[in-house]
Amino acid sequence: MLKGQGIIDGLEILAAEEHKPYRVLLPAGLVHMDEDEASMFALGAVVAAFGDVARRRG
Fold first, then answer.
1. What does the pLDDT look like over 29-54, one tens digit per residue?
2. Could you say which of 7, 11, 32, 36 would form a disulfide bridge with 2 (CB–CB 3.0 to 4.6 Å)?
3. Which pTM was predicted?
């Protein structure tokens, strides 16, 4: 969903990597994250992308 919205350019999960298996490719570069960091990033990105839409009233 984040890639489809243009928020990230890609995501790779390296199962063999213990500490930071998530590789998130952003326009600014590659960010290495652990599971907690990746979940908080995803939540923040979704809120940022859709927050205005959710606040609009018919």
1. 999 999 999 999 988 888 887 777 77
2. 7
3. 0.71
